[in-house]
């Protein structure tokens, strides 16, 4: 299936190559560079490129291109999904998926790629299994290794590989047993000029960080599961149980993972928590225009809106901008024509605004359309969909087997300091505004005591 | 592949120093005339020394640096001798890195690589499965043709390894060996056949991959494993799922009948006259008349459904394409929601998914209409995503949503992304042609756009307007005039050419403007684009023909200019036009028709989706994305006309199965034989039932025991957990068994990691495996849901159980299953079920703990397709009616028997108002009639269902079938077999029921 992989950075250097079958020359990437040139924008490079002898399927992640070489028919999504999984694994191992990190850890990268694919077909992609085969680099471990001569590479087959729960490794032990669930909900909304919502839908994910010993069996329920319109699951979730009881029942992987992602149907009207007043105008036959935007809170349910960032893609004829913000700071990049305004928090007493003049190229016709605004913000501890988690129960199989029956252990929910969610909001001046919100919402912290 | 590797090995076989220039793999040469030479060499010397040192740490360091070189694409091949010595290193990390090196360079240094082979051969016998597996991986990855026999041997051994992980690697090695040496195909197919029987979910994906690569045409290898694969599917790792689903899609298209066929029962009349008793008739009838889905077909569709919830986009897409290609049209709808969900992931996934949706939305608008707004374009989308979304929006446009869409399009037109704005204008044009209500609105809108400041927008509008006007040329003189004015300002050639063409076509409607335009054009002829020049020539010719007085000279001037043009196309066209229109002696008969030729009514262009022609590729494939056939693309075959024998998928002994497939009389004569052949079966069934009763037996033990008694059935039972429990046949026992095994599994999983591959399938902690079980025991209303072999087994065992004590039951059962309509003298009392079927299904779904008194209605195993004549077309004055018993629970009432009546109109005129008139029913009998049919077209046929409560008797229900003009007396007499409801109950219950007065 996947023949070779090339990693290419933004400036077009191939800094890593790996072949699973016969070696394919780097020159195959020329076709990719050609397509990249044609596309002008990195975002527009077609994911699938056909060359005389090969097919190139590529993804763009974190300013890197992962270009895979294919020779025969294969579902393109298969390759794309796998490449993203590779990038995720790098992220997981090195904390970031960047050229520097990959170059620094090239040996581990190579070992990982060797384990993830055999003859171009995925072999082990579960992070729990990989981590047993190849230990992630830490400073402590590299010191220990250099002294003791032990290695980063496991010499036995991870038990998970053979078991029916390949995502969990065996023999996990923690002194503090903790489980964190992070519910992040995003609103994706298109709002027209007058401020009415054209389209809005809520996308949510529950990311979990589970640090529990043994083989915990968890079940998680929602306050209002009917709201969840369409759900996709981590393989650990028992589908039958969800179908019948709307309860998430699972033996979790160890560490961080995405438990579910869901969509809330757009029928329920979504309240957008901010509004933007805008006045952007360009004068006919003159080389300047006015720019004035103000942001205010709306239906924020008593929560503060923070981390607001506004980005505007200005028209090409704009040369420069002279603006004064009442709050925060702004930058304008004359090359990409992107205006970024870092607002911060909204205080209802004094609404943040950004005003000033726009310098246009003289002689050029004034832009026909006003730019669209992109607004990101965060609200903590708010699940906009109204379907937050209601309870978590854990069964510890060790206890259960002794007693001959399962026992649910005491569990409690303490809403703790939430991880800041982010919100994106975008709007345009003329007939339509685009808003994108990413709401963060509640984090629950759970302490579990395992009786033995 | 193989030729490729050959080429590479040849390249590297030569001296590196001389051929480095062409060496495809290296970017920086270690030797050469450059200054780098000495330092590189030194560095490598340094590495060599480190590799030869005694310390592992130095070796490891050296290997790490070498791997770094490989990763960068530098040539490190000269270190081969130094590296290969370390292949036997004790340090596992060094070893792994040496493996990496070997795999990369062995092909270039074949002789030296042979040195390492013995190490691998030793490692293949290692007690550690990881080491065995990685040795096999490396051995099979070094592409050295000499070792093919060794590889073959290693693969054969590994395919019988106890560790499924090693077997998985063996499956991968098959593909590698095949690409190295295709001549081994036959031997490899044997190994594949063996591995396909493997019960481990770990192996399944890889071996199917090998199958697809080596012998995708050997569909016969799949038959026996089909049901196993379907049942294992949920537990297979996600990558394997994708491959298996794609393979099963192809399989289903060759083995099952199309579920899309409309019922057509027109030819049945003739057929009924002859070969009515023949088996063959049964078969052809099946295909023609009433389509019943093969249970195996249903099994696949049902088992893939949960995978729509997968986090892996590739799996979701694979299931979606499976539904699209093989499921009944009515069930395809469920995939749209999941596909729309995928639109939230990264742009590459979006791109592929949108492409597939675009193809689907052409054929089936309704599927995605509810999600219209999800395809609205966001300003942050990359252009390629925007255009795809636009494409889908256009496909989805209809009368109801067009106004919303057009408003949305208006915004898109103003987008800063001009490429996208142009695409939007095209889209508006397509909407205008497809939906006649909005054509004028769109046209007006487009005309407004003509005054847009952006030239690209204007040009695109002109082109689209041209196409629209062509469809309804009559009334748009004003627009043409407006466009003629645009010629002064607009510079884009396509637009100019479009305007000229338009004026030429309508030159009689704008008699004053056209010559003037021609005059202006003639002035600037030489500076125009070729495209425009051609249109000027055309315009000249048309005007010459219609208005030669004014334009004769102008046209000749243009023709003269064209004669000496640099472009040969233009010179050619000029010569052609001149000959055709200017009368001279030589011009033949054609010039008489010049006017007809130039000013013929031209058909309006069809504005079609660019995705129109993609549907012949399987969705979700690379070929579909590229819209060309990719190498190795496997065509999806058309549905077979006649279903291939479904019994090939039975995993049981074939002779037994045969008895049950053909319907009819054969069975009557057989009972003696049947009892015979069963006696040997009895042992292992008692084994299994006793096993499932005893809660101590471990799952693997059970399977082993069974495996001892018969090999075939052991495969079956372990792959399909339900067959164990089903074989117990009584519901009560089955439940008990399930409960027992559940708790047993629990303990297994708690005990820790003593799992062997067998408990993999039957572990409760992965609810999926138990879900397989549950779903198959559900008596869902889909009667096909039970896989045939199992149900056969069920009935057989039932007979076996009861044959000693009670004979009536045997008869009872066979009556249910046979297509036997001779009224039987002994009326059998019908046991009333304790619950309605649906309630039972619910209960089972919830998996409540059981009481043995529950009697469950089993779904019919076999539905006869034989129809009976209700009204012959001769006596019905052209109206023919047939009926048959679908053996489904009647929707009109619990006690009613459902009957499907097919009405055919064999006359050549409409038959109106078909309804049921007066009923002459015996006392107590009730009948639920169908709604009157307003009219039936000639040659038309319609199927309606009727429910009759026969009061458990075989008395005839007589009634009148009326049309607008006539009334016909008809009657239905039910065969006894159709009055019975099949139920499954425990032996105890049966006796209890039997003992009742």
UniProtKB/TrEMBL annotation, chain A:
- Any Gene Ontology CC annotation: Golgi apparatus
Give an example GO biological process.
intracellular protein transport
- Give the chief site where it resides: membrane
Q: Which residues form the MHD domain?
A: 176-421
Return the InterPro entries for the record: Adaptor_comp_med_subunit, AP2_Mu_C_sf, AP_mu_sigma_su, Clathrin_mu, Clathrin_mu_CS, Longin-like_dom_sf, MHD
Instruction: Write the record's keywords in alphabetical order, separated by commas.
Output: Cytoplasmic vesicle, Golgi apparatus, Membrane, Protein transport, Transport
Its record classes its membrane topology as: Peripheral membrane protein
Q: Which Gene3D superfamilies match?
A: 3.30.450.60, Mu homology domain, subdomain B
Any idea where this protein resides?
A: Cytoplasmic vesicle membrane; Golgi apparatus
Say yes or no: keyword Transport present: yes
What family is reported? Belongs to the adaptor complexes medium subunit family.
**PANTHER family the record matches:** AP COMPLEX SUBUNIT MU
Q: What is this protein called?
A: Adaptor related protein complex 3 subunit mu 1
From TrEMBL, chain B:
Indicate how the chain sits in the lipid bilayer: Peripheral membrane protein
Q: Which GO terms describe its cellular component?
A: AP-3 adaptor complex; endomembrane system
Source organism per entry reads: Suricata suricatta
| Matching PANTHER family | ADAPTOR COMPLEX SUBUNIT BETA FAMILY MEMBER (PTHR11134)
Renumbered to this chain, the Basic residues biased-composition regions fall at: 736-745
* Residue ranges, annotated region (Disordered): 1-32, 268-290, 664-805
Polar residues compositional bias: what residue ranges?
1-11
Q: Does the keyword 4Fe-4S belong to this entry?
A: no
Skewed-composition ranges (Acidic residues) = 268-279, 678-694, 775-788
Q: Which UniProt keywords apply?
A: Membrane, Protein transport, Transport
Which protein family is it in?
A: Belongs to the adaptor complexes large subunit family.
Question: Superkingdom, according to UniProt?
Answer: Eukaryota
Give the protein's recorded name: AP-3 complex subunit beta
Gene3D superfamilies named among the record's database cross-references = Leucine-rich Repeat Variant (1.25.10.10)
Q: Where is the composition biased (Low complexity)?
A: 695-711, 719-730, 762-774
Tagged with keyword Membrane: yes
**SMART domains per record:** AP3B1_C (SM01355)
What high-level taxonomic lineage is stated for the organism?
Answer: Eukaryota, Metazoa, Chordata, Craniata, Vertebrata
Its BP terms in the Gene Ontology are: intracellular protein transport; vesicle-mediated transport
Sequence ranges assigned to domain AP-3 complex subunit beta C-terminal in this UniProt record: 808-955
The places in or outside the cell where this protein is found are: Endomembrane system
InterPro entries reported in the protein's UniProt record: AP3_beta, AP3B1_Ser, AP3B_C, AP_beta, ARM-like, ARM-type_fold, Clathrin/coatomer_adapt-like_N
Ranges of Basic and acidic residues compositional bias?
Answer: 789-804
